[in-house]
Every structure is written in structure tokens, then in C-alpha cells.
Amino acid sequence: MAPPLLEVRGLQKSYWRGFPRRTRSFHLQADFTIAAPAVIGLMGPNGSGKTTLFELITGSNRPSAGQVLCGGKDIHQVRADERDRLAIHYHQSYQVRRFRRVKPRFMMQRADSDYPLVHLFDEPQFNTQDGYIGFMLDFFRRLRNEGRLVFLCVHPNERLHLEILQEACDRFIFVQQGSVTPLPDYRALLNHDPVRAYLGDLLGGRAA
From start to end of the chain, where are the E strands? Predict the structure, then answer.
């Protein structure tokens, strides 16, 4: 049996400030598994840890604790120049985030993959003209149909963004103050109290 496409096991990331007395300024924790191909919608307030989570999944940020397994491989033990064959992070205008090498290549594992298993789109720009949104939604579905896992991080500021998430995504994750909450569908997303508080007037006071 093939391993899950993505396993996030006891993942934690802390940032600290101050010297000599250090205080923790931010803490993210996540624990979830996505076994099969899907499009996952991800949202949360600014500064909640969304981009940090993406960086931990792709191996461009080192966790304080825990593991990220892509196709059964611990991405933080894979060669830095091959990690994007497992998980790739497209930041905003689709430029790819870089990886930091922390160990010599000979001490790291090979990716054993020629094409990313996990694609993470971090607040992509959706142009409303010339069918661009339809093109991107078809692209996300094609990746899923080819056996890939797609994350779509959107910071909704208009109803259109919620409509995109509803149409494109199979499941959802909400991130708030470093807490990562998986939600099974769009209805569960909009009935989650922290999500409703976050979206505010965008929902017009209605549940899904």
C-alpha cells in the first residue's frame, strides 16, 4: 500500500525574542494526514502561520519538533536541491520559494521523485478577465486528477474568493494564532465559529 501523500506529525515551530530573557513570540503546531489526491483550501488571519506551515511542509523552514512526510519521505532529510520534487511552494505571483541547505548532500536522502507530489499555492493572484480563473481552477483539478495534492491558500477580501474556494476545494484547513484545524468540507468551514468571526461581513451572517 502506498504511503499517504502528506503526513504532518506533531509539527511545531516556535519563534523567540529577547536576550538574555527569551520569550516565545509565536508558536505553530499541526498534526494531520492527507492520504489521497485532493485540493485543500487554506485560510486564516494575517500572521497566523499559513506561510510558515507551507515553508515547513516544503522543507525551507526547520521545525522545532515533529516531522513532515511527503509520500513517506521525511522532507527535512531529503537533499535540499531535490525537495521541490516532493513539495513545491509557489508564493503569490507563482515564484518558487527557495530551499536552505543545512547538511552536506551526501548525508541526505534522495527524493526518488521526478515531479512534485504536493503543490502549495500561497495567495495566488486571480485575474477576473479572459477566463483566467477558470484556467487556474482547471489546472488545480488536473493536478489532483494526476494524483497530486494541491493546497490553495486564499486571504478572502471579497465574495469571489469564497466562491473560488467552494468550487475548487475538497477539504479545508483554518489557521489561527498558530493553531491548525482541518475541516472536512465547505459547510464545516463556514460553520466553524473562528472562521465566521474571521470572515465577518463577508458571510452576510449566513451559515453554509
Answer: 6-17, 23-34, 38-43, 65-70, 73-74, 87-91, 95-96, 118-122, 149-153, 171-176, 179-183
Task: Report how far residue 47's alpha carbon sits from residue 58's, in angstroms, rounded to the nearest whole number.
Answer: 19
Q: What angle do CA 150, 190, 34 make, to 5 degrees?
A: 30
Q: Are 88 and 113 contacting, i.e. CB atoms less than 8 angstroms apart?
A: no
CA angle 12, 161, 118 (to 5 degrees): 45
Spatial separation of the C-alpha atoms in residues 34 and 19, rounded to whole Å:
40
Name the burial class of residue 189, with classes exposed (0-12), middle (13-18) and buried (19+) by CB atoms within 10 angstroms of its CB: buried
Quote the CA–CA distance of 64 and 84 in Å, as a whole number: 21
pTM of the predicted model as reported, rounded to 2 decimal places: 0.87
Residue-range domain boundaries for the chain:
6-13+25-92+104-203
Q: Identity (one letter) of the amino acid at 12?
A: Q
Per-residue pLDDT of the chain (208 residues; tens, 9 = 90+): 889 999 999 999 999 998 888 899 999 999 999 999 999 999 999 999 999 999 999 999 999 999 999 999 999 999 888 898 899 999 864 444 454 555 655 455 555 667 899 999 998 888 777 678 899 999 999 999 999 999 999 989 889 999 999 999 999 999 999 999 999 999 999 999 999 999 999 987 554 4
What CATH class has 6-13+25-92+104-203?
A: alpha beta
How far apart are alpha carbons 180 and 53 in whole angstroms? Answer: 9
